[in-house]
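Risk register update: the risk that structure generation would not scale has been downgraded. Supporting records follow, first protein first.
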Amino acid sequence: MLKDFLRNRVILIDLLAVLFGISSWISINGLWVELPLLVQELPEGWALPSYLSIIVQVANIGPITYSLLRSCGSSPLSPHMVIVPLLVLGCAASFALTLTWDWVATLGSPHSVGLFISVFFLSLVDCTSSVLFLPYMGLFRSLYLNSYLIGEGMSGFVPSIAALAQGVSGNPVCTNMTLDNGTVVEEAVVGEPRFTTSNFFTFLLAMMAISLVAFLLLHYLPTARKERTGTSPSNANFSEVLQNSTEEPVEEEVVKTKPLYNTALLLTIQAAVCFLSNGALPSIQSYSCLPYGNTVYHLAVTLNAMANPLMAFLAFFMPCTQQGVVLSLALLGGALSSFILATALASPGMIAGLGVGGSLVVITWVVTGALFSYVKVSVAGMCRDSGLLFQCGALTQAGSAGGALIMFLLVNQVGLFDGYYVSCGG
């Protein structure tokens, strides 16, 4: 079996496709798992995730602009002509992030201007990759699509492993500090991670550079060119690539009919799930987790980021096509989300105490993320079968943007959620 597997493909192309796929969302996924350290060092504090959620949604101007240019232009834009400058921009923004993530400017109040500008351009790269990378892979034989999707999933897994290796400390504690003049004062002190935030962002920069090199090799190597089907990716849309990649040889002619789904229900589920998982919940994760300690926040963020691609793989290889099951999983995720919301509203207090409550928070975040990830991929598959991928994508973005905007207003304007900060006397 292994010999047959190797005979039908070029492993180098698989490797390059994986490394290329990693660049799709590694910057934003990496930023998110670094939040437990960032919220302690930057002036926005616990409200920082709500700012970043809005920035990511604004960056959707990238794929919107590209789609408009394709639809309005006299000749379609070739994806590879856009992918190279896009990945170069990603490398430049990653480099800027390593240097400027802690630059603060006073705009009415102190804000992390360096971080925000870098994150916008990184988000622009990641969001635009959604409408570029997959159609480009349609240029190659369909068996390499799975390798790309594995890389796309690893864009969340790889930075999570790095974040777990980095580690975090608990909440700040008051410690006696002796100043140069001999005066003893009490200050809030936080333990140091194994390596700094700048080093973590340097790791993300290295991964982006590797992905850029992988794409250049994938596009220009003669070996890679031989693995192409000859179909121009510039004329392929997202739906066509997915449908063509899953086609199997037909031994006898069979009349296939589109499955009958309640499309309104499917699209509603997708919008609601994305409202919560992509927009609302990430904005309040700090308020939900930090009362139980920075370690709980760290574990909730990183394990959730690892569960998402794993469940996406499960849904890819074991898809669910039963609407009732998908609806039940979505409702279960919604019920768990209500517990997450309750913990955020209780902040800076704790539900069920530090030990039990902290464990419940981590488990709830991981299970909720896993359920929502499986639901989103399953719904996308059913929408593909129904010819509704465009509508599914539009509602995915609309739901995500709506959740981020509402929570941004509730966090920063209404002041619905409260954090606590250690205040030491002396």
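Supporting record for the second protein:
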Amino acid sequence: MSRLPIRVRVTIAFAASVALVLAGFGLFLYLRFEDQLDESVDNALELRIADLGALLDEEAAGAEPVVLETLDPEDGFAQVIAPGGRPILSTSQIAGEPILDSAERDRSGDGATLLEREGMEGIDGRVRLLATPISREGVQLIAVVGSSLEDRDESLRQLSLLLLIGGPAALALAGLAGYWAAGRALGPVEHMRREAAAITAEAPGRRLAVPVADDELRRLGTTLNAMLARLEGAIERERQFVDDASHELRTPLALHKTELELAQRYASDEGELRKAIASGIEEVDRLAQLADDLLVAARSGEDGLALNQEELDIGTLLETVATRFQARVNAAGRSLEIKAGNGTSIRGDRLRLEQALTNMVENALRHGAGQIELSAERAGGVFRLHVRDEGAGFEEGFRERAFERFSRGDAARGRGGAGLGLAIVETIANAHGGSAGAGSTNAGGADVWIELPVASATP
């Protein structure tokens, strides 16, 4: 059933519902008609009992039963039975033997009794009898009237035939109407399907036509259009990512090629050769770092970064990162200070958190000035790891897009870097269930931090 088209399934469900309604209505109609026919027959029998009482007063009851011709022989018959079972008055169809046997006479003596028989001599089809006790001159008699049920049964047979023919015909018409109505109702869905099939990445901005009526189809079309907008945005971001990555890779590759050409040119001068090789190594390191950053950025868009979480001491984590930069900080004539709480640990991926902090310190070292400070503090429901410097801070309007991929301030474009550092920081923070932020210190320098949920921190 689930493999059938929706239009067929709707038609089957509609036809099944109509079939149940028709069957219930047909049964109700048949039973109601049968009850009315039975009531009509019983009323006619009661009227004949009254007529039979009047005839009995007019006719003398002799030794031989009186044969009556006043009742229509096609409609019914009648008989009056004296005590002992002797008929004293009968219609011509049943003149002679009494209609009732002794048991039926005894039962009829207590009150009006309805009886049915499959057939009687001289009467067509089944018959219904009404036996009623009557008293004449102190003698209790039993008046019996009857009627053939042939017409009643024939009427019911005709009704059954009409229902058996008309019901399936009505069901077939209802099924066709349901199939047509389902097709009309699903027409906008098919139209949306054809429109969706025609939408390609080469034709951005195209949307599905939404029905005017505020119904399920309109909401479906609105939802699909919103999904198309999100997909277009994702495709555009991926295109921009590829374009930016290609642009960022082109510069270090060109520089590396230049260094190799210089190395080849100064092959006879050992000093120049070593200098060219050292410069080439720096460019290779930059390419390797850029490739690693691009890999992290690409993975963050799939199922998120895979983390190997463990219990980490905050002080040890900050010391490790500080030691990594100590030589560069000293060479730049700057200082690096660590402020971490005593005995504070946190659950996280050591390598990823070191990478995030490394990018934050790299950003402060490359674009900031003065002392660099690594600190850890509890702030409300989160645990923050800060990297602050004493430089000029973020340029106006840049803070809002500082964590976007390949985002760089105007003053930073000539200082190297691909603009992925803070984007990687935010990716790692999000993978830990936290977030990243940026602001300014009281002195106006840059303040970059990552927030981790308190549930991850253990005092």
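The longest helix spans residues 6-58. On this basis the risk owner (M.S.) recommends closing the item.
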